[in-house]
Write a structure and sequence with these properties.
The complex is a heterodimer of chains A (495) and B (322).
Chain A lengths: L27 E3 L2 E2 L4 H7 L4 H18 L2 E6 L2 E6 L2 E8 L1 H25 L4 H4 L5 H5 L21 E8 L6 E7 L6 H14 L1 H5 L9 H11 L10 E4 L8 H11 L2 E3 L4 E4 L2 E6 L2 E4 L2 E4 L3 H4 L15 H6 L4 E3 L10 H4 L2 H9 L6 E2 L3 E2 L3 H9 L4 E5 L8 E3 L5 H13 L4 E5 L5 E6 L4 E10 L1 E4 L4 E3 L4 E5 L13 E8 L5
Parallel strand pairs in A: 5-25, 7-15, 8-9, 8-13, 13-14
Antiparallel strand pairs in A: 1-2, 3-4, 6-7, 6-22, 10-11, 11-12, 16-19, 17-18, 17-19, 20-21, 21-24, 22-23, 24-25
Chain B lengths: L1 E24 L9 E11 L5 E4 L5 E7 L3 E14 L12 H6 L1 H12 L12 H8 L6 H15 L1 E2 L10 H7 L1 E2 L1 H14 L4 E8 L10 H9 L1 E9 L3 E5 L11 E7 L2 H4 L2 E6 L4 E10 L11 E4 L12 E3 L4
Parallel strand pairs in B: 6-7
Antiparallel strand pairs in B: 1-4, 1-5, 1-12, 1-13, 2-5, 3-4, 8-9, 8-11, 9-10, 12-15, 13-14
Helix pairs in contact in B: 3-4, 4-6
The chains are: A alpha+beta (495), B alpha+beta (322).
């Protein structure tokens, strides 16, 4: 037999035929040569054979299933509940990489907050023509009800989820979009870490990974600091649209982690501008609401009168300073994808600093010359609706059909203000397990760090949610579009 | 100068018990250099504390809630208001050609009063009115707006009940009829489509003294008392009021309550409540006009007819809008 011949090292099994392709591979400098900070991980994972890997994977899936970590996909009127696919190979960031990201995000969050204070206040940026007035006033996200309203401690963006991508051409992290309404996904950051520590205890122990589990404590402390009554007996609640919402798991998870009540709109009532929670012991005053309901549905009296999710009179309570809302109402004007294009300019305007993290080049279809260019280059560009998120309402040019482009051409001409376009960025890749080949293959990733702002400083849980496009070649990482997630490690020192 | 006392009563009667009723009203006449609200009192039954504020457009808003079960809700708004005569410009303002050159600046300053809104879409069907009004030989923006106002006045028929608060501009354009709200919206569309900023005005049209007579149109409007018209911003002249329903200059008979982009911004009474009951709305506006030269007071009582209850009942409902 072949006993005397060296058997092929199992170390190479699952990475056999792994290609880095034309992309920045976060793990490998070149095939089978890991970057130094990935080397210990490669040692562990590379040694596994298919069966050993599958065992770990099944354990991980079971852990998620038992905890009910699911999300709902909306499409064509069908709602399907799914496990959020989790890939076991963590994404690792060095301390130096993270430091730059952290500084860049803090700068951005502070700017977004200043922008919102300004837009709903003196509107200096409009008077100085940094941002066109029409861009603000034409946005359905501009809430006139917020004009002149002094939000508690001046904070609009308590929680921001800012999506970053790494450009394969340069290896540089770029900001893809800002999410300052009700960004979701942080529960996966916490759960992914717990599951991964159990799936790969040995690999994990070889690294000094910065912890993420203090997120609920940090958020709870911001919630308490906003109480209009002050004092230790602050009552904070998490307001959810209910069990049919795609992020309901997260709502219940965070409420439980922070030790606050999880409520629905019907559990709250406003009386003469004071918010109360209905309890079996009678009405109990509520000071702070971490709301996971969109602005439009928050108060049927002030916004959409058909909403049955919200709390009538809540806007009055907020306006009169009797309750704090997290995040503030009207933040959608700051994460509008057309306003995004002005963020670098706004950083310079408000802070007098150069942006630390760059934007992706963006064409504003509201500008006639940009629109003309976009219409001529639909096949090369990504076109996005400015108010949409979650990967809905977009055209991926290179992968589009003639019919798809025709439809977008019509939409662009009908409502140019509603669209932006960007060049397709070759997102960096990280190995992920491919179910069909039973091997690792490079898959595109992005990164959504969660930033907390307490009015003075920005606290960012190291890492964030790495979303991965599990379909071969796909650049769309949204969970609603076949994406999954990975644990993200930030190393304590420089590896 | 003229002084009026206005008593505006809104009553909701429900078929069953409703609760957690939240309401927002815009009923207090505004104050500025042309008008003073000398007194305002708002009373609700069931009794509720009322909070006052001003909104984005500077209008007064009063808000209250009734949590306990009730079958009847009444809102009494009483105001005393003094109206100064308006000096309307007879001519002037920039020419239409000059207006076109100012497009960017106007959009920058008045975007909200130029863009289409829910109740004021920029429909192709309204284009004809723009073209016809543009034939005004003087070529001035003021003449354009005045011509547009009289075109809307003459081409459309005032017909009580022709439309309701949720009617669209398509409805009134196709039927050729509407109420003051439709006339105002239509004229807003015409001036905005031509590049002139326009804003909606809600208020009251005070009946004239019986001794002065008046045409049938006025009686119909007087019967309603609640009224709507618009103002157009003419560069170099400022905001100029026009009343396409009345067809005559805006003057001391017009009492202003609120400004907005369209009706949706200035709804006099809006609210939501919980309960499965159908509802019945009635509105009365009682007007006590001028202490006239003879010192006589004239009392006119008017009532709007009942409105049909909505066909469907849902757990949370909207108050009908007047």
């Amino acid at each position: 037999m072949n006993q005397l011949q060296p058997s092929p090292a199992p170390a190479n099994n699952l990475f056999e035929a792994y290609e880095t392709g034309a992309f920045y591979d976060e793990m490998f400098e070149q095939p089978s040569v890991p970057r130094s900070h990935y080397a210990p991980l490669f040692q562990v994972i590379g040694r596994l054979d298919q069966q050993q890997y599958q065992q770990r994977r099944e354990l991980a899936d079971l852990a998620f299933l038992i905890q009910g970590i699911t999300f709902t996909v909306y499409s064509d009127g069908h709602n399907t509940e799914r496990l959020f696919p989790f890939d076991l190979v963590p994404r690792i960031l060095t301390r130096a990489e993270w430091d730059l990201i952290e500084r860049g995000l803090a700068q951005r969050v502070i700017t977004l907050n200043l922008f919102l204070q300004d837009i709903y206040g003196p509107q200096r940026a409009l008077k100085d023509r940094i941002v066109p007035r029409s861009l603000i006033f034409s946005s359905p996200q501009f809430r006139r009800e917020m004009m002149g309203l002094k939000v508690p401690r001046g904070i609009h963006t308590h929680i921001s989820g800012i999506d970053l991508i790494r450009d394969s051409a340069t290896g540089e992290f770029l900001v893809l979009e800002d999410n300052v309404r009700t960004p979701s996904g942080v529960s996966y950051v916490l759960e992914n870490r717990l599951v991964l520590m159990h799936a790969f205890p040995r690999a994990f122990s070889q690294y000094a990974v910065l912890p993420v589990d203090h997120y609920p404590v940090e958020l709870a402390s911001i919630l308490r600091s906003l109480s209009p009554r002050g004092g230790a007996d602050t009552v904070a609640v998490l307001l959810t649209p209910g069990i049919f919402n795609s992020a309901y798991f997260e709502h219940s998870f965070l409420a439980q982690q922070m030790g606050i009540e999880l409520v629905e709109g019907r559990d709250l009532v406003v009386d003469s501008g004071i918010v109360f929670m209905k309890t079996i012991a009678g009405l109990k005053r509520v000071d702070v609401i971490y709301r996971r309901i969109d602005d439009e549905f928050l108060d049927p009296l002030a916004f959409n009168p058909d909403s049955v999710l919200g709390v009538p009179g809540l806007m009055q309570a907020y306006r009169e300073g009797n309750v704090a809302l997290v995040n503030a109402i009207g933040n959608g004007i700051a994460d509008d994808k057309a306003v995004y294009a002005y963020l670098p300019e706004l950083i310079r305007y408000y802070l007098g600093e150069d942006p630390i993290l760059r934007n992706v080049d963006t064409y504003l279809c509201s500008k006639p010359d940009h629109l003309a260019y976009v219409l001529d280059h639909l096949e090369e560009l990504v076109v996005k609706a400015v108010g949409e998120s979650g990967g809905y309402g977009m055209l991926m040019g290179p992968a589009s059909t003639a019919a798809g482009r025709h439809e977008f051409r019509r939409r662009l001409l009908a409502n140019p203000r509603n669209y932006i376009a960007q060049p397709v960025i070759g997102l960096s890749r990280v190995p992920a397990f491919d179910e069909t080949t039973n091997r690792f293959a490079g898959r595109h990733v992005d990164l959504r760090p969660y930033c907390l702002f307490d009015g003075e400083k920005v606290v960012i849980v190291p890492g964030g949610l790495t979303r991965v496009a599990l379909r071969p070649g796909s650049l769309v990482v949204n969970s609603s579009q076949g994406g999954g997630s990975k644990d993200t490690w930030v190393l304590r020192g420089d590896a | 100068m003229n002084r009026y006392k206005i008593h505006h009563v809104t009553e909701f009667t429900y078929d069953g018990t409703v609760s957690e009723s939240f309401n927002e009203v815009r009923l207090r006449p505004l104050d500025d250099d042309r008008q003073s609200c000398l007194r305002f009192r708002l009373l609700t039954r069931p009794l509720a504390p009322v909070a006052a504020r001003t909104d984005y457009y500077g209008n007064w808003v009063h808000q209250f809630n009734v949590l306990a079960g009730h079958r009847h809700l009444r809102v009494d708004a009483e105001s005393v208001v003094m109206v100064q005569p308006v000096e309307l410009p007879a001519a002037g303002g920039v020419s239409l050609t000059q207006l076109d050159a100012m497009k960017d600046d106007l959009e920058d300053e008045f975007y909200e009063y130029l863009a289409p809104t829910r109740y004021v879409p920029h429909l192709e069907a309204a284009r004809k009115l723009v073209q016809d009004a543009e034939r005004e030989p003087a070529g001035s923006t003021l003449a354009f707006a005045q011509t547009a106002s009289s075109l809307v006045h003459t081409r459309f028929r005032y017909e009580k009940g022709a439309t309701h608060v949720h009617s669209s501009m398509e409805d009134s354009l196709s039927s050729g009829a509407g109420v003051c709200q439709d006339f105002a919206h239509l004229l807003l569309a015409v001036v905005r489509m031509r590049g002139l900023p326009g804003r909606y005005v809600s208020g009251y049209l005070m009946p004239r003294k019986a001794s002065e007579g008046g045409n049938s149109m006025e009686e119909v409007i007087g019967g309603q008392a609640s009224h709507a018209w618009m103002e157009v911003h003419v560069p170099e002249l400022g905001w100029v009021p026009l009343d396409p329903t009345f067809g005559r200059p805006v003057g001391i008979q017009h009492v202003r309550i609120a400004y907005g982009r369209d009706y949706g911004d200035v709804t006099p009474v809006r609210g939501v409540y919980k309960g499965h009951a159908g509802q019945h709305l009635s509105v009365d506006v009682l007007v006590l006009p001028a202490l006239n030269e003879e010192g006589h007071e004239l009392l006119v009582e008017t009532a709007a007819g009942p409105v049909e209850p909505p066909p469907e009942s849902v757990p949370q409902q909207q108050q009908q809008q007047q």
